[in-house]
Specification:
There is one protein chain. With 134 residues, the protein is mainly alpha-helical. Helices cover 75% and strands 0% of the residues. Helix 2 runs antiparallel to helix 3.
Length: 134
């Protein structure tokens, strides 16, 4: 059963799903760029909307090397973001917060392991380590 699931997952998304995801992500990116000037710190909104959302849009509508290079670029930036967050919280933040939504060193470590390490793995290898067990 696992092997069959891997075959289906290995095929990727259908063209319709890729285009739908690309259009929706692109609209989110445009919306974020348009509302950014009204924010107190618009740089993060510009970066997320302009870079991540629009890059994901291009990834959804392209194939081959372009998609792979953009995916690696996003993985690298997610790693950098998680490493920066960890260092910042280590220098400025509390060790443990009372709530999961509040910044802390522990939450930064969890973010690094959940997103940063897979991001750098994908940036270096170009794929995630999936091996079928039959």
């Amino acid at each position: 059963m696992y092997g069959e699931a891997q075959k289906v997952l290995g095929k990727g998304l259908s063209p319709f799903t890729r285009w739908l995801l690309g259009i929706v992500t692109g609209l989110f990116g445009v919306m974020l760029v348009l509302i950014a000037p009204e924010m107190t710190r618009p740089f993060a909104i510009y970066a997320f909307g302009g870079f991540f959302c629009l890059t994901i849009t291009v990834m959804c509508v392209t194939t081959g090397k372009v998609r792979n290079i953009l995916g690696r670029l996003i993985g690298f930036f997610v790693f950098l973001l998680s490493a920066f967050l960890f260092i910042y919280e280590l220098l400025e933040g509390k060790l443990i917060s009372g709530n999961k939504s509040e910044p802390s060193v522990l939450n930064a470590i969890l973010f690094f392991f959940a997103f940063g390490l897979p991001g750098i793995w994908f940036a270096v290898k170009g794929k995630f380590p999936i091996t079928p067990h039959e």
